[in-house]
Automatic annotation (TrEMBL):
Keywords: Cell membrane, Cilium biogenesis/degradation, Cytoplasm, Cytoskeleton, Membrane, Nucleus
Family from the record: Belongs to the CATIP family.
Native species: Anolis carolinensis (Green anole)
PANTHER family in UniProt: CILIOGENESIS-ASSOCIATED TTC17-INTERACTING PROTEIN (PTHR15505:SF3), RIIA DOMAIN-CONTAINING PROTEIN 1 (PTHR15505)
Location of the protein in the cell: Cell membrane; Cytoplasm, Cytoskeleton; Nucleus
Protein name: Ciliogenesis-associated TTC17-interacting protein
Function: Plays a role in primary ciliogenesis by modulating actin polymerization.
């Protein structure tokens, strides 16, 4: 019998959206670009079964990227990619998450793909989350043999999602908490449950612990995250972090696989600029300094020689200055500057030529008219 495809829009059946606490909203608002910048790196872990066998891999990558809001506008954002590949009881299971998170830790788009590869019956769950204007749209599809057999679509108002942390943003928030070694107390966040409905989530610290990595014992900071679906058992995960935000171990309660690192990575250290040197002010008595005083005398003689040469090359200069000084002493004007301007004005090459004899009562351009 052929399976029929069904598509449902779940709005009437949607549970009531909870509200994040004030502390959670404030905590997210205080995470700045300088806090996230050291968290942009790649890391890889291996999946270990309960018997200690390697059954898969786990990798996380966070880097800067651009997100096209429309054809004319791009936005700087963080591109978060996480991939988990494990084989449990001979069945390959793959989970990939690709999300674009803004610098305000808001998720604008996220693709999640969960694949379980049975021999003759592969099943995939594909979830697409996209923010457009003031709505967050979610589409969840169950795919069997490349055919969608069930689709759920619904949306949320962004105004109701303050304090929301998607799986993509969660990886960034965990790294920031690990670097700070600080988890907000009694903060209630919002997130998706397994059905992509909005529920609450909380973070708690289990303190500093010791972890054996190869032949080395390292200090790790442990954070426990709990997702609280409505009327369901909470989903708890524990994350063990090195001091720079590298993940050293990840445990999902009830899962047969544990993610661990095989060797300690090179820790990321921030470049702290050296403080700007401060030089105290030193009083300089150049007259008492032989070298400076000698330089002063040399410069003085150089200027005097230059000035004397210029006067010798222009013999009209002493005569012109003598005429001006003689007329100045005869007239004794109150405004010496205006008198000098009127005296030397006719010598300017920019003024048009004038007659030799002009009227003595002609107004001067250098005096304001009353």
């Amino acid at each position: 019998m052929q399976t029929q495809k069904s598509e449902v829009t779940e709005e009437a059946a949607m549970p009531k959206i909870p509200v994040a606490s004030k502390g959670a909203v404030e905590f997210l608002s205080l995470i700045g670009e300088e806090d996230v910048k050291p968290c942009l790196f790649e890391e890889s872990l291996v999946a270990i079964s309960e018997s200690g066998q390697t059954i898969g891999t786990f990798s996380i990558s966070v880097k800067m990227a651009y997100y096209s809001i429309n054809e004319w506008q791009d936005e700087d954002c963080y591109l978060v990619c996480a991939t988990s590949k494990v084989t449990i009881d001979g069945v390959p299971c793959t989970t990939t998450i690709t999300g674009h998170v803004t610098k305000r830790l808001e998720t604008v788009e996220q693709h999640t793909k969960e694949s379980v590869r049975f021999r003759e019956h592969p099943v995939e769950t594909r979830i697409h989350v996209m923010k457009r204007q003031d709505q967050l749209f979610v589409r969840k599809a169950i795919v069997e043999k490349n055919e969608e057999i069930h689709v759920d679509t619904f949306s949320y108002k962004c105004s109701q999602l303050q304090g929301f942390i998607s799986e993509s943003a969660n990886l960034l928030v965990l790294r920031v908490m690990a670097r700070r070694q600080l988890v907000p107390q009694d903060a209630i966040f919002l997130t998706f449950d397994t059905e992509q409905h909005i529920c609450t989530s909380t973070y708690d610290t289990l303190g500093l612990q010791k972890q054996q990595v190869g032949k080395e014992e390292v200090d790790v900071f442990v954070i426990e995250r709990a997702v609280h679906p409505v009327d369901e058992i909470p989903l708890n995960c524990q994350f063990y972090f090195l001091s720079d935000g590298h993940l050293s171990r990840s445990i999902q309660i009830g899962s047969p696989a544990i993610m661990v690192i095989l060797q300690t990575p090179v820790l990321i250290e921030l470049d702290v600029p050296d403080p700007r040197p401060v030089f105290g002010k030193i009083l300089l008595d150049w007259e008492e300094d032989p070298q400076l005083y000698s330089m002063f005398l040399d410069r003085k003689e150089e200027l005097e020689a230059s000035h004397a040469t210029y006067v010798r090359r222009h013999p009209e200069l002493p005569a012109l200055l003598a005429d001006f000084l003689q007329l100045l002493l005869l007239r004794k004007p109150d405004d010496v500057v205006t008198f000098a301007a009127e005296f030397f004005g006719p010598f300017s090459a920019q003024n048009p030529p004038c007659r030799s004899f002009q009227s003595s009562d002609k107004p001067s351009p250098f005096r304001s008219r009353v």
